[in-house]
Amino acid sequence: MCGIAGAYGKLNDRIVDAVRVADATQKHRGPDDNGFWLDQSAGVALAHRRLSILDLSPLGHQPMIHQASGTVLIFNGEIYNYCDLRDELLSAGHTFISHSDTEVILKAYVQWGPDCIKRLEGMFALAVWNPQRRELLLARDPLGQKPFYYTFLPDGDGGQALLFSSELRSLLASGLVERKLSPSAVSNYVWNGFVPGPETIVKGVVQLPPGHLMIFKEGQKELPSPQMYWTLPPAEEGKIDPVDVEHLLKKVLKEHLATDVPLGVFLSGGIDSSAIAKMAVDVSSSPVMTFTIGFHDSNLDETEAASRIAAALNTDHTNIQLQGNEFLRLLPSAMESLDQPTFDGLNSYIVSRAVRKAGLTVALAGTGGDELFGGYRSFRDIPMANRWGRRLRSVPKPVRNFVGALASGRSQEIRPQTRWGKVQSVIETGGNLLSVYQLAYGLFTPEFANTLLGKRPNTSSFQGLPKDRFIDLLKQVQKESSLTAVSRLEFSLFLGDRLLRDTDAASMASSLEVRLPLLDRRVVEAVGKLSPEDRYFPLGQKAFLRERILRGLDPALFDSPKKGFVLPFETWCRGPLKPSLDASFNEVDTIRSIGLDPVPVQKLWKAFLDNQPGLYWSRIWSLHTIIDWCKRHQVTL
């Protein structure tokens, strides 16, 4: 788990210096070591910040160079099947001087070339320079757990140079990226509360999509496009025995436990994290450490439930108790940790900081269980809303409008910005499941989102997504059953563009590595082959994890409703945070400079303070966050 930065092309001194600055800005991602490699004649600069996890010795230093071929690698992440790959490479005649997964990747590339990427099971973003073939390979892991941002810069000779990094903010800090917002990204942010990829909030900076690679060759006239090497495959329902999935999960979990630094399992008291802790106990020969973040509010605190589960599992358990005033004190640094504006992610920062402070460097989490096994309400609500949308297509439009207006509460100046407030929009979809999903998850009704944006249409976006992304997702979900279609959308949008991105930025701000065994590619593919009965039903129960992974434990341990680690923003926004929000929403010039209309922004804030129904804190916080982020980083339209 580290940070990478680099450049390729005709590199002048300004671009080389920009790589150094981008690297230095990411020190929090890798406080243990750093390295820089430059071949000015080849036009390659590579930088690395190291958070030492496997083989803590200098033998794991990066950039790592293969002496015989001159191949150079920088890598961020973890490869969980590195031991198997190492054995295969040893059989092929390779020798190793370290015990790091970095050296395994390097020699896998030497042995198999770019095809080695398909053999890597893990989370990663990497760059490999091949001096013999004069080409640079860039790649990102299948699910997008590790970030990869890039842009193209004028090289001063009529061409373009590539500049890339693990964080968007480090590219801004380089001084060579124009601090301009992407208008379509602002529009999509207002809809979602985050920016869906591959675009970013900054104009000209894009993300390498998950499961993609790019190859730059010396002398090529056209810039390469990302090539997909993996995508979530269509479900093959009933093609695998649940026992085989259970065995695979435990194999993968054992690989995720490999580390040379302190590791613990985040135990929230819910099904997913308990399943991870239970498997860790089953496969580990040493005591398993678990930890829970406690909150002073008994309505939010999960330490009691988690402690009962830890006792049943016989883990070495720690409750890390935090007070409300500590959260408020940490909010400025939490806001600073956001790599892109997002209304979420602050919980992850608070948790990561507390865990790192407690002495752990690696934490295992249960992220992915809801997406895999139908744990969210969306698995019930989206198909139901979609069915009603199809049924009402034949109803005369005036009747549909009347029903929609009645449900949406049009009598209020600002109608509810909730799913009920979007009933008419859902009816108008006519049964398009992707549109229903986007409307359900959107922070605002489409009409009010346009009002916030000054009613300026953005032709490159559609329902909160880049148009090309919308069309691609639409093709994918049309081939799936409704439940698997919702799962695919949760993986791609909620998980891929929001949760994983926020987790990486928040955890790396505290130099903490978070591993997610349920999101191992092998697990995701295998679960897609389960029958619907084994995978989803009964809906919301995640019965596969309950009955197969957690068997032997008292079911009563999991009967209480899961509270989730949720900060009391609803109360704070009307209380101790009110002065900051007041100031933010009164910065009229700043609000205009980022493409928002100050009048509806201020009306929304007033309606929230007046406790108008259907205006949750997340709507307010999302606008405050983008205003704060843009001001903090001096970015405007």
UniProtKB/TrEMBL annotation:
Q: Which GO terms describe its biological process?
A: asparagine biosynthetic process
Q: Which catalytic residues are annotated?
A: C2 (for gatase activity)
Which reaction equation describes what this protein catalyses?
L-aspartate + L-glutamine + ATP + H2O = L-asparagine + L-glutamate + AMP + diphosphate + H(+)
Q: Which residues bind L-glutamine?
A: D101
Report the EC code(s) recorded for this entry: 6.3.5.4
One GO location term (cellular component): cytosol
Q: What are the recorded GO MF terms, alphabetically?
A: asparagine synthase (glutamine-hydrolyzing) activity; ATP binding
Residues engaged in binding ATP: I293
PROSITE patterns given for it?
Answer: GATASE_TYPE_2
Asked if the Swiss-Prot or TrEMBL record annotates the protein with the keyword Transit peptide, the reply is no
UniProt superkingdom: Bacteria
**Pathway entry:** Amino-acid biosynthesis; L-asparagine biosynthesis; L-asparagine from L-aspartate (L-Gln route): step 1/1
Q: Which UniProt keywords apply?
A: Amino-acid biosynthesis, Asparagine biosynthesis, ATP-binding, Glutamine amidotransferase, Ligase, Nucleotide-binding
Give start and end of each Glutamine amidotransferase type-2 domain: 2-219
SUPFAM superfamilies in the cross-refs: Adenine nucleotide alpha hydrolases-like, N-terminal nucleophile aminohydrolases (Ntn hydrolases)
Q: Tell me which family the UniProt entry assigns to this protein.
A: Belongs to the asparagine synthetase family.
Q: Any idea what this protein is called?
A: asparagine synthase (glutamine-hydrolyzing)
Which gene name does the record give?
asnB
